[in-house]
Amino acid sequence: MPRIGPSLPVDPETVDPEHAMERASDNFIVCELMLGTTTTESYADFDANDIQYGFEEDQRNRILRTYVRNAYVYHLNEIFSAVKNEYTDWDKPIQHPINIRDSTMEALSDGHTVAPLIRVAYLHARRGAKTYFFHFGYQTKDSDYPQRLGSVRGEDLTYILGMPLVGGQPYFPANFSRQDIAVAEAVLLFFSNFAKSGDPNTAPAPAKDLPDYGAARERTRYKGLVWDPYEIGTQFYLSMSK
């Protein structure tokens, strides 16, 4: 089970979130929705030893069986076998502990975060609502996380808050590069536009009674980048990466 996960103020015995969204009134689609994920959403599910050295297949099987048992009610063995088969690299005759770790992280990331987010995006977009989806795959150059794992859960928060533009402050210490700052500028512009207008590509005109602070900073290499909405036919999403 993930150590940190979303929760709903409802009784899960009586209200199923997916069922509620499928049959929701127009209140579910009157607002624009933005969803996003990092590459390794399950990073916090493992301890430092697992992350550094990996683990063997027996531990992988215990982890996946525990997750399946807590997430599903019926056909547990079939689901476990399907997940193990899907997330095993059968081209490698010998599975290295690091590779086993990577595939297990990918399975858990998809299971408890990515797949549910995509399902919410589908249920929101299928009725014509404006939906935007992103994958934050960028890695801070001066990072404590292993580069092999890609971006990890929460790594996008640094950029959404614009920390590279102010030196990180006490809670986000890092030696941010010029590229980190450029990514932060792009992310901030997208998110602030969305908060103001419901469209990450368009900023609303300033109110007449507010001072004019000038144009927003350029997004350097990201200038001109358009974030297309997520639709059930195209499933467009924005990849924020190197």
Automatic annotation (TrEMBL):
Residues 16-217 form the Carboxylesterase type B domain. Keywords: Glycoprotein. Gene3D superfamilies: alpha/beta hydrolase. It holds the Pfam family COesterase. Belongs to the type-B carboxylesterase/lipase family. This is Carboxylesterase type B domain-containing protein. It comes from Acanthoscelides obtectus (Bean weevil).
